[in-house]
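User: My collaborator and I are trying to settle a disagreement about how two of our proteins should look. Neither of us wants to argue from intuition anymore, so we agreed to look at predicted structures for both before our next call. Could you fold the first one, then the second, and keep them clearly separated?

Assistant: That sounds like a sensible way to settle it. I'll keep them separate. The first protein:
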Amino acid sequence: MFDDKIVISINGSSDGDTRLSALTLAEADAFITLISSLRDLCSNSPNNDELKIEVKEGSAQAILKGPPGSMASIYMDFDEVLNGKSSDYSDVNSWKNIQDVMLSEELALNAIFVHNGFTHDIKDNIINAKRFRRYGNRTRTYYKLEFFNGILTTIGGKMPNIHVKVEDRELVIDCSELVAQKVKEYLYKDFYIASWTKINAKHEVRERAYCQVYKDYSEFNKYRKFLTEYNHSNIDSFIDGMYDISNELLDGEDIRAFRRFMNLFIHGSWDLNVLKTMLVISYPFRDRKEIKNIRHKLTLIYRSNKTKLSNH
């Protein structure tokens, strides 16, 4: 079977033909950008362990290749970026950097997709498209993940919910019957809980829904600090933090704690890039019984969000 691939070539510059063994400064800068961008596309793919980066002599060729099934998501992501429908910061940024290089008047470049042995030229798609940018979230109602430290005072109601006293407030948090049974042991005790809060355009709380309860304050506080500092405008820093926490848990072989961390991302309000990052991090553990089901839920949310963006 043929590998599918993306091939971007620097064929020449104002100084003449391009040779990988003797690049001009402009060619070297462009080639580094191309390799870095393809590397980021690879890193951001849920199937990155099946993909490879390659360079070739002749002209200077930067190549991302892999089995057709693994490259399919790269092609679909490119189509979303091309049509202005991607909310994935990393994908958009990678293709924007490639677009900047392709628009250079100083260099002659080509870009192709190779799929099942057939070549598709994408150079014109890239250089004739509008400047690549991220698709924004325009919804008027939004969700916020909140962490509360209080006393569990009541379990019940016509619809299952729990009441938590936090300082001088009593919060009502919707939950399932199973959760209501599970948290009985915390009644009238210190209670550490994460909940999803639905907020309208006037910044009024409409409802709260159960996310997770913690027995250990230090674990609760670590996630509270990390998640409350989440900033949509600095998603790179947030993703770095996701890797830091995940590596700490997995290096300590605490797979159940890692599962609890994953559970915080089982919600459709997360940025697509955040969901994809958690899929990438959890991929090596996809067959572990503690991870398999929750990762399946995460995959369904990710695919659903991608479909919604594609239909806009």
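The second protein, kept apart from the first:
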Amino acid sequence: MRVICRHLALLCGALWALASATPVRAAVVTVFTTASGPTALQVGQSTTIEVSAVVSGATGPSDGLFTYDLDLIAANLLPGQPSLLSVLPATRVGVNDSLYGGGDGLVTASGLAGIHGGFDAKDVGLTGPVVLFRVVVTGTGTGTMMVTPGPAVDPYGFDFLVYQSPPSETMVVYAGGILLQVLPDDDGGDPDHGGPPTNVPLPAAWLIGAIGAPVSLVYRWARSPKARAE
């Protein structure tokens, strides 16, 4: 009997160790930022920024994107500094506003806040990146701007939700923003800012790019309804 009990104890210990070593499966939403036009603009010229997302590690064929809630900001804009870009509200793609609500974003000093929407189809983003929205930006002053999406949490509570994986098992990775350069117009002028071209420092943008995923996860928990209740 002692031998049997010992063997059972060893078996239970092995099963526990195996379960502990098995990683928790997580859906990963990766967010990309591209430009469908030039990334070097003259003052007064425009380009279109596209923000896309893809889901990997889904639990099944119905674990696609459900909702998103994002900001689009000039990451290296210093406090009190005028932006080198003007933006128009986003054009969102494939969303159902009558069912989930939605918004094209609120224009702010640093970009757009609260671009959000939801999808009817349950397989969005499973077979490849899908465009979430497009934003037209126009150069207004010379220099460089790092434009990047980031998490917003109102009104849905999370930057991304997928259909089946719970938020605690969904990781969001921001693959980095896009660097736009605004050059003087053909006459060499800079009518909105004056003076010679200026280079805006970029440390904040590189920091966001380096730690984007951890920041997203911490921000998601900190702004979740459970955390706010605590």
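Some points you might bring to the call about the second protein. The chain has a mean pLDDT of 79. The longest helix spans residues 2-21.
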